[in-house]
Design a protein that fits this description.
The complex is a heterodimer of chains A (236) and B (82). Chain A has 236 residues and is of the alpha/beta class. Chain A has one domain (3-234): 3-Layer(aba) Sandwich (Rossmann fold). Chain A has 5 helices and 11 strands. In chain A, strand 1, helix 1 and strand 2 (29-33) form a beta-alpha-beta unit. Chain B has 82 residues and is an alpha+beta fold. A 3-stranded antiparallel sheet of chain B has the order 2-1-3, with helices on one face. The interface between A and B is medium-sized, with 19 and 10 residues.
Chain lengths: 236, 82
């Protein structure tokens, strides 16, 4: 198994993701420069957080034209796994790999704090080890995390169980007060119809060690790793 | 030849920046302001060899594929002969 962490000019959570995969999940991982066009040696790629291209034009708007994104699309079409975190989620929406868009937080602030998210669907490769309804404590750090889509897309996301994480309070209630950025339906993370592409605003790679206040993020990487291992065993 | 492209948020898409500006404008005492929405404006210099139609086609394509996000934004293209 091999992970790739894509590095765009302006990515700044690439080393955190690399650290978690290599040291805590214990799997081989490469940094993949955004000019790369061949992802065939990877089972999963992570689009990390940061400010690709300085967030110029719109967050994630210019990264979608990086050469690697064509390869990421083909990679996703093959059913391989793509995890977009924060800016990575913005890039996946801009690229059309995930529906909707992420706009400026309702309160206009850059918000950097621990939030709680409820796992809405454990039937995805990224949440297979986490029972639905679990409450995870994971930090967010963004100014453009306000997920928006039209009614039709929202209905589709709900009907296909593509909403994977929702912002919630400490009791797991999805309330307006628990919504940090104004996202429609408290959406914190969604997957595509095939469930092999996940985008989320919270940073699971920042919640993998006790010293950082939470290890809940680790469950996401553990789920994905176990899913890939299981698939590899089944294919043998 | 010069092209001007205006990119604006679609009707119904919340514009927190426009709202904040509106609020400040009202605090300053300006009256009769119903709403303010913020957008983006681009000036694109084009090679003189293009016809106006070609220029419009080219810039429209750029506005559609690069400058705007169709999920949340609309665009308007104007070609200006100098």
């Amino acid at each position: 198994m091999k992970y790739g962490v894509i590095v765009f000019p302006g990515s700044n959570c690439d080393h955190d993701a690399y650290h978690v995969i290599s040291k805590l999940v214990g799997q081989p991982v490469d940094f993949v420069w955004h000019k790369e066009t061949d992802l065939s040696r990877y089972d999963a790629v992570i689009l990390p957080g940061g400010f690709s291209y300085g967030d110029y034009l719109r967050a994630g708007a210019l990264a979608k034209f990086s050469p690697v994104m064509k390869a990421v699309k083909a990679f996703a079409d093959e059913g391989k796994f793509v995890l977009g975190i924060c800016n990575g989620f913005q890039i996946l929406c801009e690229s059309g790999l995930l529906p909707g868009a992420l706009i400026r937080n309702q309160n206009l602030n850059f918000i950097c704090k621990h939030v709680r998210v409820r796992v809405e669907n454990s039937n995805t490769p990224f949440t297979s080890e986490i029972p639905a309804g679990s409450i995870l404590s994971i930090p967010i750090a963004h100014a453009e995390g306000n997920f928006i889509c039209d009614e039709a897309v929202l209905t589709e996301l709900e009907e296909n169980n593509q909403i994977v994480f929702r912002y919630c309070d400490e009791k797991g209630e999805v309330t307006k007060e628990a919504n940090p950025n104004g996202s429609v339906s408290n959406i914190a993370g969604i997957c595509n119809r095939n469930r092999n592409v996940l985008g989320m605003m919270p940073h699971p790679e920042r919640a993998c060690e006790e010293i950082l206040g939470s290890t809940d993020g680790r469950e996401i990487f553990r789920s994905l790793t176990n899913t890939i291992e299981r698939l590899k065993r089944d294919n043998r | 030849m010069k092209a001007k492209v205006y990119v604006t948020l679609k009707q119904g898409v919340l514009d927190p920046q426009g709202k904040a500006i509106h609020h400040s404008v009202e605090l300053l005492g300006f009256e009769n302001i119903q709403d303010i929405r913020q957008g983006k404006y681009f000036e694109i210099q084009l090679n003189g060899s293009l016809s106006k139609d070609e220029a419009e086609k080219l810039v429209t394509q750029i506005a559609k594929e690069v400058l705007s996000n169709p999920v949340i934004e609309d665009y308007k293209v104007e070609i200006e002969d100098l």
